[in-house]
Amino acid sequence: xxxxxxxxxxxxxxxxxxxxxxxxxxxxxxxxxxxxxxxxxxxxxxxxxxxxxxxxxxxxxxxxxxxxxxxxxxxxxxxxxxxxxxxxxxxxxxxxxxxxxxxxxxxxxxxxxxxxxxxxxxxxxxxxxxxxxxxxxxxxxxxxxxxxxxxxxxxxxxxxxxxxxxxxxxxxxxxxxxxxxxxxxxxxxxxxxxxxxxxxxxxxxxxxxxxxxxxxxxxxxxxxxxxxxx
Length: 230
Description:
By secondary structure, this protein is α+β, with helices and mostly antiparallel strands.
């Protein structure tokens, strides 16, 4: 028998409550609350390259990534698309629903074959009205998440751009990387334009910072695939 996540990805929801327990937003939920969530769950299979939702679309569903990988991006006022983040197994999409938004502020596209378990906003709100403790537990988890993200933002205050870049790459590699010996490879391509936005710097500066990290042996890069020394 495969893992619970494998069972869910294959279409079986046996034991899904335990799998949901591993997701940060539901970490404070009781077993009975998790079972209630199962009653409103929506399973989706998303092909590589397919949109999960688009920027400006009606925000009415929360997605939990069960397998695969998803890229979040946003089209700027100038019309250029910028990469904001990457989500993998255990991550959530559409959490802005809890702030009362009406439309999705970003687009989400599958980078590979992906399976999600989602919850319709109206159904979720009805469940919260029936069981207010569920809403309180979501607020608690969101507060913990905000604290974690605040620490990530503080890392951007590093004086050296190379150190800032390495901090961002290190964070991506910890969430998505494949460890081989004393190295960790990020399994998807990252362009200098994407890195510039993630770090908050100009593309030319990122190119120079990459050269510094390579020269110091902290990273290597081939065909836009980056490997970090650990």
